[in-house]
Every structure is written in structure tokens, then in C-alpha cells.
Amino acid sequence: MKIYNFFQKFNKVKYVILLFLFIITIFPLLVHAEDKALQTLQKIGSEQGPYKTIAPGDNDLAGIVGIGIQAFLGLLGVIFLVLMLYAGYNWMIARGEEEKVTKAKDTLMRAIIGLLIVVGAYAISYFVINSLIFSGKIIK
User: 87 with 131, same domain?
Assistant: First the structure.
């Protein structure tokens, strides 16, 4: 009987929590809180973003190299995501076997370190090239 009463109370609490979550979710729509965010997204979408597109007459070497670097970094991002999913899956199916958990943790660490190295190298090269270009050493 005590267990049944507990579940009845839990059922009431569950409905109160669901009602609270619904109110929190719907409240921004009621006060039109999304307008500023929507306007900002539309503004960003109307401008050209950080990705350069090659126009038919704009096939200079710098544009092609830039597109190649962006494609390479995008591919590395996909590889990183796949490695993270693979390591997470291996960790989940390890079932407490220490050897498999250690292997999954090593895969996670290596994927993160690899991503940090690639992003760090890109950031350093971007900084150096921009410093040289804007200081007038390369292009005057």
C-alpha cells in the first residue's frame, strides 16, 4: 500500500514538472522574446559569412587555397566527430571491462589532442599571415 501511495504522489509530481517545463518552453513565445534573435539571424544570413565562395571569374590561387583549407578543416571536424562517437560507443559497450574503457578513453584523448593541434596550427598560421599582410610586409 505504501508503494502505491508513493507512485500516486510521484505521478502528481510528474505532472507538475511537465506543466512547469511546458510553461517555461512556451513563455518566450508568449512575450515575443524570439524577435531580436530572429532579426539577428536574418541579418547574419543576409550577409556573406566567413566562408568565401569562388565566383566564376574569381579563381585566383589565394581563393582556391582558402577553399581547400576550409574543406580540409571541415573533413577534420567530421573525422573528430566520428572518433568521438566511436570512442563513446566503445565505452558504453565496455560493460565495466577496464581494458576496453581504457582504450575508449585513449581514443577520446587522442581525438581531442589531434583537434587541438590542428586548430592551434591553423590559428597560428592565420595570425602570422594576417600580421604580415596588414603590416605591409607582403602586400603594399
Answer: yes
Q: What DSSP assignment string belongs to the chain?
A: -HHHHHHHHHHHHHHHHHHHHHHHHHHHHHTTTHHHHHHHHHHHHHS--S-----TT---HHHHHHHHHHHHHHHHHHHHHHHHHHHHHHHHTTTT-HHHHHHHHHHHHHHHHHHHHHHHHHHHHHHHHHHHHHHTSS--
Predicted TM-score (pTM) of this structure: 0.53
pLDDT in tens, 45-86: 666 555 555 555 556 676 677 778 888 888 998 999 999 999
The range of the structural domain enclosing residue 123 comes to 61-135
| Residue 108 pLDDT class (50, 70, 90 cuts) | very high
The number of folded domains in the chain is: 2
